[in-house]
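Here is the promised in-class demo. Please do not try to memorize the tokens; focus on the logic of going from shape to residues.
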């Protein structure tokens, strides 16, 4: 397909050229500098400013008031904000303030980021203010602008401002880390901090600004008719750009990459409502074009808002154009757009996401010419109406398109459910390519009035639908159909012409990841402070537990690594290599094997330590009959006495199935798991820890250690047992109701 964002290969670990390309894009390598930033239109200045140089002044203390145009003398100003009112306060119209690269630091360099307080620069009621070339760090809010029509902010750095200390670890998610952006009419977002926060302003320009190592980059509340371009707000633990009741804005040529939390590769991928671009609560008629928001919780997250869902039943985030952006490698959704009308998603790149597009309860939506590859589901829409999917390129997804409805009496009683109908109906699916889809190209359930024509299909099943689907029409169509009665109607399908012109936008920054750059979810590394930004040498994770064989990533800006020493009965390979590299830590025998290894990365010597559990588990899966929500199996003895659906020999209990079935013969819901092994323990006390959804029980030598036989979301349970030296029998049991499914077990010597 033509006109898509450029493609980049996916090299594996150990590809220095790819790393150098990524580092150049990050601005960390002199070999390939960042593209030049465009100068934004200058705002008006005070009379005479064009005829004489601006006066140069110094910042002298907290609560400094600036009322005329000036240059600020370069240097570092260490000025905490004692009263949460702003260290620098600006009043007046038509001002120009050039900080000439000065740094305004609100906290000591060794203070933890979740302890930052105060606001750096505050301006209220200033028309046509131009502010440039300032680095603000160590504050809860870097810049706060209110009622500043005509604001221009350019060349500023808001790195190293407030961020929460995350409780999730590489081994387990903590639900308290989820973000809640659904209320902000009283500036509730303040609690999450921001580099730049603009409120109730029109005609603003934010261009050429940068952020790293914070939580939120740019937050706009009730901002209209404005331009946000050539900014780089990446490697943040919340949102790169967030809009609240903000409409008719142009967002173009920005980088919002690696804005993520709630992710551990191969363990969990929740995202916790982090996003590269967040569009909430009645934000309509915006243009988002040529941005990169890869490796986020969501790439692009649009939600109508609680006004629509809970108070009025109407409105939404409507008629937005999302054009030629890259939203690949999202933990959850490349694009999420719900309860809204008339949005157009055109020629975007969506690769390796849980869902390429999730558009529940959307209507009048256009998905045109997008590239969707390697996702769990390419496009998923529940209860959508009058949507059009045309010319999209699907490849290597588990399922291409899924459209469905299901009864929900509680939702129908809500304001939204009473105000507008929510059937799944009225689709045109035409001229798409479905290549190498694992299960099916198109799956319908409870969906009516669907026209399908001129699609190219390479999948075991081209179309599958249930008996609740009515009015399925097939035009030119090839492929296997699994249809419940009544069958499809075959004949001509009208495909009215559609064309979306490229928007005319500001900005020159080539924001997309460069050709050959390292990309993919395996390169998302999140610790207690957020995503790793590839600047400093790092072993990730630095602590290993509970795996038969472990992988540890050697990371850094460039160069090589070398394994110096290894303690314990494990083997660490390879002994040396280029960055980024993968160290494989394998047991030399069965049992519990503590180990420690020292690795040199560049000039730094780092350490990884932990305990491998080298066992052979016999894992069996069973089916059981559901008894209703939140109710575990009634006769567990009968469940496990039946013939198992599948049996496997595995070296660990480490399953994060999510919504996927555990195997070809095991369903996604209402299944049971039983794992048994015998393991040699040295004498001592041991901590057993599980992460499960739903119920879990663990025994050692028929003694219960963990018992949480309940319906629950992902939950961590712990138990401790003292053991004599020798072999001991282990047994773990688990049941799954519906929704997310997970089962993990770790064993460690008690410290």
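The designed amino acids, position by position:
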């Amino acid at each position: 397909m033509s006109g898509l964002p450029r493609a980049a290969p996916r090299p594996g670990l150990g590809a220095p050229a790819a790393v150098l390309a990524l580092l150049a894009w990050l601005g960390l390598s002199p070999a390939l500098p960042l593209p030049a930033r465009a100068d934004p239109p200058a705002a008006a200045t005070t009379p005479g400013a064009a005829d004489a140089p601006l006066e140069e002044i110094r910042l002298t203390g907290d609560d400094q008031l600036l009322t005329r145009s000036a240059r600020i003398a370069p240097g570092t100003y260490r000025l905490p904000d004692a009263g949460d009112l702003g260290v620098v306060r600006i009043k007046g119209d038509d001002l120009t303030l050039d900080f000439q690269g000065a740094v305004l630091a609100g906290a000591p360099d060794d203070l933890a980021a979740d302890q930052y307080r105060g606001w750096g620069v505050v301006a209220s009621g200033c028309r046509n203010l131009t502010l440039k070339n300032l680095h603000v760090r160590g504050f809860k809010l870097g810049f706060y602008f209110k009622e500043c029509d005509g604001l221009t902010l350019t060349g500023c750095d808001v790195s190293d401002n407030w961020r929460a200390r995350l409780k999730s670890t590489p081994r387990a998610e903590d639900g308290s880390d989820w973000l809640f952006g659904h209320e902000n009419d009283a500036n509730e977002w303040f609690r999450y901090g921001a580099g730049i926060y603009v409120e109730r302003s029109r005609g603003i320009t934010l261009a050429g600004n940068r952020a790293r190592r914070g939580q939120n980059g740019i937050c706009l509340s009730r901002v209209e008719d404005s331009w946000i371009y050539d900014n780089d707000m990446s490697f943040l633990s919340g949102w790169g750009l967030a809009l609240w009741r903000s409409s008719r804005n142009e967002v173009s040529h920005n980088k919002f990459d690696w804005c993520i939390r709630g992710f551990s590769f191969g363990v969990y991928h929740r995202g916790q409502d982090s996003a590269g671009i967040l569009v909430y609560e009645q934000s309509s008629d915006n243009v988002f074009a040529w941005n990169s928001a890869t490796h986020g919780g969501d790439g692009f997250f649009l939600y109508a808002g609680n006004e629509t869902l809970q108070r009025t039943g109407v409105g939404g985030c409507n008629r937005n154009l999302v054009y030629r952006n890259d939203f690949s490698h999202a933990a959850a959704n490349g694009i999420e757009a719900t309860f809204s009308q008339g949005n157009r998603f055109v020629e975007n790149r969506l690769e390796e996401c849980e869902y390429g597009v999730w558009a529940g309860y959307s209507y009048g939506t256009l998905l045109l010419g997008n590239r969707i590859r390697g996702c769990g589901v390419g496009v998923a829409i529940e209860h959508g109406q009058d949507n059009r999917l045309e010319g999209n390129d699907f490849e290597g997804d588990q399922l291409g398109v899924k459209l469905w409805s299901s009864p929900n009496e509680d939702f129908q009683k809500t304001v939204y459910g009473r105000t507008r109908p929510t059937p799944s109906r009225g689709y045109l699916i035409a001229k798409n390519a479905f290549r190498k889809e694992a299960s099916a190209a198109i799956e319908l359930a409870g969906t009516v009035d669907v026209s399908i024509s001129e699609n190219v299909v390479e999948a075991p099943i081209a179309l599958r639908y249930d008996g609740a689907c009515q009015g399925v029409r097939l035009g030119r169509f090839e492929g296997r159909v699994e249809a419940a009665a009544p069958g499809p109607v075959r004949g001509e399908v009208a495909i009215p012409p559609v064309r979306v012109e490229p928007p005319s936008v500001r900005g020159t920054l080539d924001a997309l990841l460069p050709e050959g750059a390292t990309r993919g979810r395996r390169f998302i590394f999140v610790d207690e402070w957020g995503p790793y930004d590839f600047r400093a040498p790092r072993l990730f994770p630095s602590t290993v537990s509970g795996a038969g064989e472990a992988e540890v990533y050697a990371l850094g800006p460039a160069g090589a690594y070398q394994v110096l020493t290894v303690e314990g009965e494990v083997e660490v390979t390879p002994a040396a290599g280029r960055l980024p590299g993968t160290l494989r830590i394998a047991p030399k025998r069965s049992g519990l094997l503590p180990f420690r290894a020292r690795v040199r990365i560049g000039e730094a010597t780092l350490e990884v330590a932990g305990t491998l559990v080298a066992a052979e588990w016999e894992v069996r899966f069973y089916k059981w009959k559901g008894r209703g929500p939140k109710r575990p199996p009634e006769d567990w003895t009968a469940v496990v006495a039946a013939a198992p659906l599948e049996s496997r020999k595995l070296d660990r209990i480490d399953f994060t199935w999510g919504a996927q079935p555990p195997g070809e013969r095991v369903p996604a819901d209402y299944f049971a798991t039983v794992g048994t092994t015998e393991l040699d323990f040295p004498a001592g006390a041991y901590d057993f820890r599980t992460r499960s959804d739903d119920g879990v029980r663990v025994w050692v030598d028929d003694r219960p250690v963990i018992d949480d036989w309940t319906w629950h979301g992902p939950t961590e349970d712990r138990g401790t047992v003292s053991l004599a030296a020798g072999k001991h029998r282990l047994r773990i049991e688990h049941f799954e109701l519906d929704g997310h499914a997970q089962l993990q077990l770790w064993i460690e010597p008690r410290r």
